[in-house]
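tool_call: predict_structure(chain=1)
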Amino acid sequence: MAVPRDYLAVSGDCIIIVSGERGERVHHAELLEMMMRSRSLAEVRRRFHGSRSNLLKTLAHFGYDFDMLLREQFQEGHRDAQLARLHRVDQKWIAEKRRALGFASRKGRPRVERSAEDVAQALHAAGSFVGAADLLSINRKTFKRLHDEALDCGFDMGSDRPRPAVELTDAEGLVRARSAADRVGTKTGYSSHEMKTFFDDGWEDSS
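tool_result:
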């Protein structure tokens, strides 16, 4: 049986990270701390090279319950495709774990996620919540949620506070005005119901 080039070996309280003919000895606390902080197999495997099964066995050896992490992530509403990317595993494997842990498959629109860095960069580039949301191709409500989550986690968004989402730059206002004009056309008289529908269509956030 061929020996894999990259794998993890347990030696007492330490882990030997084997890569080719080289091996690095680290304390297992580093692995556990990184796993608890990132909650991502893909992130951990950048440091602790090895197959999925090798990494999971090593985590289990030192008392880490990966199934408990998956339960939490299922309860948080993450879809199979999102978790497959997060852990860099096959989506079918996640689906099997979901069923095995007693969770129903998730249907509908997936929860939009962006990194705090993406949120900060978009906000810096656009100068407003409205513009930043457009850059990320998400609605303002979702952008505000991501922005608030990043702040709650202690991410520094910079000293310049952005304008509220309802405030428009001149350019943004012009775009909205042109869009409104296209929808209005040549009709000059509108009922109160038509006006309400017009503004709801133009300004409401999608869920």
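agent: Residues 176 and 202 are 8 Å apart (CA to CA). Proceeding to next step.
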